[in-house]
Amino acid sequence: MNLFKIFKPKKSEDFLVLDFGRSSVKGIIFSPPIIKNYQVEKIERFGVFDGKDFELDVLKRAATKVIDGLGIKDEIARFSQIISFSPDILKAEVFDLSYTREKDKEKIEKKEQEEIYQSIFKKAEEKLSKKFEKNLPGHFKILKKKILEEKISGYKVSSISNFKGKNLNFKISVIFCPRDYLSFIDSLKISLGLEKAKIYHIVEGLFDLMLNNSGIFVNIGAKNTLIVSFKKQLKFIEDFQIGGADFSKKISETLGLKEVDVENLKKDFSKNKLSVKVKKRLEEIISPALNSWQRKFKEKLEIRGRTFDFSQKVYLFGGGSLLPGIKKKIEELGARKINYLLAKDLPLKNKTKISFSVEDTSSLLLTICKYL
Fold it and tell me: Pairing relation of β-strands 91-100 and 140-152?
């Protein structure tokens, strides 16, 4: 049974999603809420997003195979095009911001409303700059800004227009990208005939679904772990640079195995197909990496004195979430309601012959965004 109700689009329209991850490119043809086609192509995991011609060619080649597999090579222009990237490339933040009015006895007219919004967006950019001043000092570009919630004197309103009041509060989401990747992304779009493509973050697929609901979503990709928390509204977004590839690398270095052999070993590990002896050995190998992941996860939940309510449900997805030990590490922090977020939990109708896994969930979230 779906967690969320099927939404009805205003009109029938075919969309193309290309999701560029660290380890694969995934393509989807859909007409909300129907998934019509789905293709995946593996890419070289390390060194892809360095902006060099070779890496661009590697990613382009994988995306071209996906497009060919979807059977839309000669008609790609007719689709509404959506592209996305790994959360360590395309990033998201949420801020709670306040604004104090001087003329609090007067109604907020349209002109003042726009001035307040501009002031709030500027504050959001300043907070973003401060947060990333060490890692990305001024070297990022904001792609989207959105007001998620507006309050006057503590009361939620759909719009501040025509209201009186002194103390205003806003919740703002920001989608941004390090500038080092912008020219790379532009070159990729041009080379694939995706000049009109719009960029979306997987968080945008969760915004409206989780309105008035609670839960924490943990997406463990190849090189990154993304944490998104809701409690009747988006509460926070955090991420850190540990993912499935880090566990694979540890196994590869210890056992001297090639990447493909490590991935096959991990699959058997997650399906409990290994002997007791081999399973125990792998647990010993990845134990330090799992402990590091847990420390980072806990740190992000407690950042700036934030308290986290583990009575909420925790939803895991992404290929790295299948690794035995991840659920246990979260349970050790106090969580008890841990589930995998699968395609069947989303407001979608799968008309393909594919049985989707948690590795596909992040890409499928891009099909339930509210497209503007």
Answer: unpaired
Helical residues (DSSP H) of 166-275, grouped into ranges: 182-191, 204-207, 244-255, 259-270
Q: Is the pLDDT of residue 40 over 80?
A: yes
Q: Strand order in 140-152's β-sheet?
A: 91-100, 167-178, 140-152, 155-157
Q: How far apart are CA 341 and CA 111, in angstroms?
A: 43
Q: Are strands 15-20 and 24-31 parallel, antiparallel or unpaired?
A: antiparallel
Letter for the amino acid at 159?
S
pTM recorded for the entire structure? 0.92
Start-to-end C-alpha separation, the chain = 29
Helix axis angle, 259-270 to 244-255, nearest 10°: 110
Separation CA 148–CA 171 (nearest Å) = 5
SS3 content of the chain, % helix, strand, coil (to 5): 35, 25, 35
Instruction: Please report, rounded to a whole number, the percentage of residues in the chain having pLDDT higher than 90.
Output: 74
Distance set, CA 318 to CA 175, 225, 230, 311, 341 (Å): 20, 9, 19, 22, 9
Q: What is the pLDDT of residues 284-319, one digit of tens each?
A: 999 999 999 999 999 998 875 666 677 789 999 999
Distance, in Å, from the CA atom of 74 to the CA atom of 136, rounded to the nearest integer, reads 39
Task: Share the mean pLDDT of the chain.
Answer: 90
The answer for residues whose C-beta is within 8 angstroms of residue 178's C-beta and 6 or more apart is 89, 91, 136, 139, 140
What letter would DSSP give residue 197?
P
Q: Which parts of the chain are beta strand (E)?
A: 15-20, 24-31, 34-42, 80-85, 91-100, 140-152, 155-157, 167-178, 198-199, 214-220, 225-231, 234-240, 314-317, 338-340, 349-350
Task: Please report which residue ranges of 100-225 form alpha helices under DSSP H.
Answer: 110-131, 182-191, 204-207
Q: Compute the C-alpha angle 266/268/273, nearest 5°.
A: 145
Question: Quick check: helix, strand or coil at residue 71?
Answer: coil
List 31's β-bridge partners, or say none: 34
